[in-house]
Amino acid sequence: MIGRHGRSRFAWLLLLAALAAVFAVACGGDDDDDTGGDVTYGKAGFKTVEIESGQPIKIGYSGPLSGDLKGIGEPIQKAVELAAKDKTIKGHSIQVVSKDDLCSADGGASAATQLLQDGVVAVVGPVCSGAVVAAQPQYEQAGVTHVSPSSTAHKPTYPDRGQVFQTFLRTTYSDDIQGPAQAKFAYQTLGAKTAYIVYDTDAYGTGLRDAFQKAYEKEGGKILGSEGYEKKQTDFKAVVTNIKNANPDIVYFAGFYSEATPFIKQLRAEMKDVKFLGGDGVKNDEFIKGAGADAEGAYLSLPSPVYTGEAYKTFGDLYEKETGIKRDASPFVAEAYDAATVIIRAIEKVAQEKDGKLVIDLAKLNEEIRKTEIDGASGKIKFDARGENVGGATPVSLFQVKSGKFEEIRQ
Amino acid sequence: MHPALTLSVSFWSDQFVNGLTTGSIYALIALGYTMVYGVLKMINFAHGEVFMLGSFAGYGALVVMGGNDLSGPVIALAILGAIIVAMAASVSASVVIERLAYRPLRNAPRLAPLISAIGVSIFLQYLVLEQTSARAKFYPDIFPRGSLSAGPFEITYIQLFLIASSVAMMALLYAIIQRTRLGRAIRAVAENPTNASLMGVDVNRTIVVVFILGAAMAGVAGVLYGLFFQTIRGSMGFIPGIKAFTAAVLGGIGSIPGAMAGGYVLGLAETVGRELLNELPGVSLGNQWRDVIAFTLLVTILIFRPTGIFAQRSTTRA
């Protein structure tokens, strides 16, 4: 009897192992990473939207409006609202419909569903790349163009299955630019020959990780190891021990300030002097507020220059006056203002009055947005076939935290 | 992803200390699960939230006492104060939960209090998330930094404090259960509530005492967690709660030494265990694998030893 029980338990274990193996295969990422070549679009389901007289034209916004990353999403939302404020198109006002997507893939998809049900004609966002990747198919199917002011990952413009999304554009720049610039800065300017990577497992974190790693190794640097984490993780002790053991010159963090804050506190408790470099997800006043003295000396980058132009100054003054939020407290507010402006200008051009209604052909709207060339608050904006902003010069700016402030590093 | 590290002795001892630290927190919370199960045969799924409430109360106390501006020997007093406030908050929450959500269902089918517990858990979690607009709070960074070394072992002050105070709390609890009249009453109710009440034990009162003791442990764990990881949020109780429940089951639910041992086994499996697996050729498990390892361990142990490590039917039950 005992033998039989032993055998059946063993059989169960085998079954479990087999299931685990099948699952592992099912979860494996698709590695067909397309990196260039011709652009072929999928089929976008463009429709025509009719707006009754007296009704507003609805523009959607999708970004984190609660939770840890509210500090990114809210300033961007205010910029979008500012761009739409007091604007009218043929007698119709513009209403910004905001949905909280929590910066997550699930949230991005459900915000898209809600916005599409609300009848928006175009969307600013999603803010985070993880949400963008999850929501792209829905916007494409509905034929609703969405312009992200802040999604920097590689994946949105180079989707897995090769077909580029016609309805996606962005006013910021890809991590294919930010990653290599960070790598060069780490290797050449800071003289860091070895690095350890800590990354968020979402589309943004993994994309930035890959971009940095590739460029850093090309520079001649050595990656000593990498560890991923899920959002909301607070226990980084085991990761810190691994880093301590590898003893790198620099720790590269591809993620958001919400996890960079506990991470750097735990890192600094054990390694006071190792250099720390992060990207746009960390460069936020919230990071300095949360990490306090442990943030001192940290290096951060943004995929944009430090704006100095007249248009930025005008926008910044207006933004601070209207919202009470500092223009550089959180990145991408100028990009968001521009994204909304691009959309509103295009609506102005394609919207037509017919039988007392306002008719907007979403295919024409998409075409008009793609054709945009403007001098925005964040510089020149012009899109290529993938939806990438190719308008302006795109230097990456670098900062170091000094006495509780981000100080630009001029190179 | 994970290139060959020159795994030194100090690396392993560091990971061992990390495992003990996390394990201590799991063990402290696990005690609440196991004691309640012992007397009520019920899983108190709201216990993770009792831990969370303790952590928030401790945070509030520290902020009121001066937060980051505290310095010098006052810090020790402030931490002690925070622990007391946290214990008080956890205990009152737990007593209220028991009175409102569990006692009315004492004689209902066994699934009813379980569902009620899940409901309380979700209610409390979202209440705090709502109040904090789901954002993290950062514990004042006041614990002195630095470490002690002994041979290959290096342990930071905070880790030492955390492990020592959890062990002290567990020893205290064990003494209460084994040496006092109160403890004898708890053991009697765990053994057989009907007989215990016939012998003059006030069963309801004893059950409340069990909730109080478990919640006090969770409150301490909440402050230790906050001081150590420094980030707390409304949803923080969920994962440690599930892990501690796992630890309790691992050790043999109902057994107090089992819960303690289960906590440490789980903490070590997540940290040292993962690195040991990474030593195998071709294996590289990232940080995200820790939960997979923890729960695989649980399933495997339960297949071979369904009653857990400390599987004894009676004597050690509380």
Describe the structure concisely.
By secondary structure, chain A is an alpha/beta fold.
Task: Describe the model.
- The complex is a heterodimer of chains A (411) and B (318).
- With 411 residues, chain A is of the alpha/beta class.
- Chain A folds into two domains: 202 residues, 3-Layer(aba) Sandwich (Rossmann fold); 127 residues, 3-Layer(aba) Sandwich (Rossmann fold).
- Chain A has twelve helices and 18 strands.
- Chain A has a seven-stranded mixed sheet with strand order 9-8-10-11-12-17-18, sandwiched between helices. In chain A, strands 3-4-2-5-6-7 form a six-stranded mixed sheet, sandwiched between helices. A three-stranded antiparallel sheet of chain A has the order 1-14-13.
- In chain A, β15 and β16 form a beta hairpin.
- In chain A, α3 runs parallel beside α4, α7 crosses α8 and α8 packs parallel to α9.
- The longest helix of chain A is centred in the first third of the chain and has 26 residues.
- The radius of gyration of chain A is 23 Å and the shape is globular.
- About 1% of the residues of chain A have low confidence.
- In chain B, strands 1-4 form a two-stranded antiparallel ribbon. In chain B, strands 2-3 form a two-stranded antiparallel ribbon.
- The longest helix of chain B is centred in the N-terminal third of the chain and has 32 residues.
- Chain B is built from eleven helices and four strands, in the order ααααβββααααβααα.
- The chains are: A alpha/beta (411), B mainly alpha (318).
